[in-house]
Amino acid sequence: MSTSLRGGQAREDQLLSATLEVLREVGYNRLTVDAVVSRAHASKATVYRRWPSKSDLIVAAFMNATRDLPAERDTGALRGDLLGALEDLLDEMDRFGDVMMDLLGELGRNPELASTIRDGYIATRRQNLIGAFARAKDRGEIPADVDVQPLWDLAPAVIFFRRYNMGEEVDAEDVRVLVDDVVLPLAFRFSAG
Amino acid sequence: MSTSLRGGQAREDQLLSATLEVLREVGYNRLTVDAVVSRAHASKATVYRRWPSKSDLIVAAFMNATRDLPAERDTGALRGDLLGALEDLLDEMDRFGDVMMDLLGELGRNPELASTIRDGYIATRRQNLIGAFARAKDRGEIPADVDVQPLWDLAPAVIFFRRYNMGEEVDAEDVRVLVDDVVLPLAFRFSAG
Amino acid sequence: MSTSLRGGQAREDQLLSATLEVLREVGYNRLTVDAVVSRAHASKATVYRRWPSKSDLIVAAFMNATRDLPAERDTGALRGDLLGALEDLLDEMDRFGDVMMDLLGELGRNPELASTIRDGYIATRRQNLIGAFARAKDRGEIPADVDVQPLWDLAPAVIFFRRYNMGEEVDAEDVRVLVDDVVLPLAFRFSAG
Amino acid sequence: MSTSLRGGQAREDQLLSATLEVLREVGYNRLTVDAVVSRAHASKATVYRRWPSKSDLIVAAFMNATRDLPAERDTGALRGDLLGALEDLLDEMDRFGDVMMDLLGELGRNPELASTIRDGYIATRRQNLIGAFARAKDRGEIPADVDVQPLWDLAPAVIFFRRYNMGEEVDAEDVRVLVDDVVLPLAFRFSAG
DNA sequence: TCATAAGCGAGACGGTACGTCGTGTCTTACG
DNA sequence: CGTAAGACACGACGTACCGTCTCGCTTATGA
């Protein structure tokens, strides 16, 4: 019940919120620790005591904001599960789009950051998709001899590519086409197409 | 035939080469304009006269190095064309991997740079794939009612995602699986699978 | 009693000392802020936080070094007072000669600097001379109807002119001649010449 | 009668005029060769072919503008000669005041410039004063045993000091006082005062 | 009359210093 | 003790200016 602990937690949240705000406003490159510190009425020492570098701070802010996993949905059919999980992805992209783009770009420059993001963010999101395929196979929806592993990342890959590399908008209809015309036919071997 | 133009060109090339060298050695973040300038026995003014900022310089160096398009291959069959084009992509990734990763990350921060890269680099590479599908359709290899557009970026998307977002190595065998198990079945509706 | 203030003061003194050293070694024109900074094991920001430009820094270094006024001498006779004050001037010229020459030249280019130097340096030195004449008049050494004001700057003017405009050396004997043959005859109306 | 020579001469004058204009507008420090060149619609090579450095150019411009010596006046009396010569000095100060101040300051930084200015400018002006004293002595106006050499520079020294070091205005009345109350009494040993 | 050279405007260039900014460390004083 | 405030060393940035250089163009003499 110590105030200092809760205070510490609360302070941490304030710092991360301020970081996220600044991140949204000016992007990774132009974010300065001074700006964060000034917005949070904090001191640089307070920041650096917790996160040893600017990029740690930013990653922490991102991880904190995306801490809540989208709930795993079980609609009873692969199609519904996929559409649900991918819509969650789209949602998060809408809310953290530019920040994610920023961070994705940072991955190549910062291996530590990369593994944090991959293990802490991407991997957790992927679980929902892996789960969807696993349930479909358990249900017999997918033929037993189909290797689903290559299908896991198909839809996210295309969504990421279009959005982050090609700079295109991706909406629910695009996702539906992707699921119905690409992923499901491969999963079902056209038997249900 | 003017020497001045070629002289200017030559200087530019030297500067871009030096930039690329430094880029390869220390990466985007630790590249300094001073290092480039010193390697090229040039002056900062000479650099900044051409490229208004460090990132412009780096992009120019990348675009210059990847100016030469991989030749379009026509093997007479979609499979061969795809494998060829994707191997070229893999090759280029091997040669410019880290730099590309760096630049990809820059896209989200710099819209101008993004369109330069997209129009000048990605779009040109995509042409080879688009061409491969078009020829296959002309030959009747692909059923007339199959919409090939969603298939263009499928393979590159997966390759980019695995390599740049997931940090995995991608080799020729992975590409072969991708083509044989994902792209071609969709293109041929399993008829030739 | 705050250590921070003294600490700040101390740092300032170190910076100004380093500045003066470099100034002595290479002169105003070839002094670089980087050299100062490197000698003081300081950072450019630390310098520029205090003095907005290189010339401000140099002036501050000069003012700091000449902060200590030469003691006012009272020998009981005008001649002794004058010779004493002028010898002090010569001394200071020997110690800060080139720097003063440098700064003198800066006066015409920088009005703010000019008033700083005039009020903070020249005016304080002149006080000793003014005092000498005042005491002489009080003692009755100088006839009551002699206007001494034109005599105040006579000797310094000649010394400055010879040294800084004509580039000649000026020594104690020159000063003696100046006092005995020019200033005193005018002050005493030749009565005591 | 060659056009090239006259052209060369004319071009030289244009360059020096442009230099003087810029010098008047922004002063020695902020004058840039590029600004001069641009104003004269000339090329840097054209300037540097004639004057090897910026300061040479500026000195040349000054020397060119003050090429015309004030005529030596012979009023038949020392007082008139002195007042005449000093008024000429005041005139020139009015016309080239700031530039002279600038250059004077530069003397301490640039020995070559210093001797050029001293021999080419100051020395020539001093001739008029030296001549005035010589004629007065020849005429018997000044006692034969008076050493006039210390008197030569007395008035100019005071005028320079007041104007350039103290930043005061000096007008004809000041000069008159200087002559009547300082120089002439010393020259005449008060016999004519 | 023409060509060959010399001077020129334009402006790129190497170099050097400037003054600014950001990071991560560290110190001071307060609560 | 943890914190706000902010100074500090380091190092890169992008700008400005100097003095050198190269480029074509124009002009002006000498074959």
TrEMBL record, chains A, B, C, D:
Keyword Membrane included in the entry's annotation: no
Domain HTH tetR-type positions: 9-69
SUPFAM superfamilies per record: Homeodomain-like (SSF46689), Tetracyclin repressor-like, C-terminal domain (SSF48498)
One function term, GO molecular function aspect: transcription cis-regulatory region binding
Pfam family, one: TetR_N
UniProt DNA-binding residue ranges: 32-51
Record keywords: DNA-binding, Transcription, Transcription regulation
Superkingdom: Bacteria
Cross-referenced InterPro entries: DNA-bd_HTH_TetR-type_CS, Homeodomain-like_sf, HTH-type_TetR-like_transc_reg, HTH_TetR, Tet_transcr_reg_TetR-rel_C_sf, TetR_C
Keyword Transcription (UniProt): yes
Protein name as annotated: HTH tetR-type domain-containing protein
Taxonomic placement: Bacteria, Bacillati, Actinomycetota, Actinomycetes, Kitasatosporales
